[in-house]
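Study the following:
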Amino acid sequence: MRKKVLFPLLALAACSAGPSSAGFMMGSPEDCAPRVAEALRAVGIGPDQVASTIYLMETAGGREAIAVGVAAWSRIKSCKSGYVVVQLDLLCHPYQTYSFGECRVKGVPEG
């Protein structure tokens, strides 16, 4: 029961804190694209190196799932297969970047 109540309270707290302290509340996973680009640049991957990005909502809770964040799976041109993944919270703050599959990029840990 607590999980059902926790998310609305966190969302309300984030919205009431204002944009200067909480960032912005995402409407769809693609709204995180600017933050994903920043996170990729931080590990040395520029926009010209990204072939495509898929944005997925991450959920928890089984049948009564709640949104808990976003995962952006970027196909990197220098990789034959695999991805560089950026995980973000619901305010589009990145908290983890890693490579997945056969993609290896210097400075990016393997996931």
The beta strands are 50-60, 66-76, 83-88, 94-100.
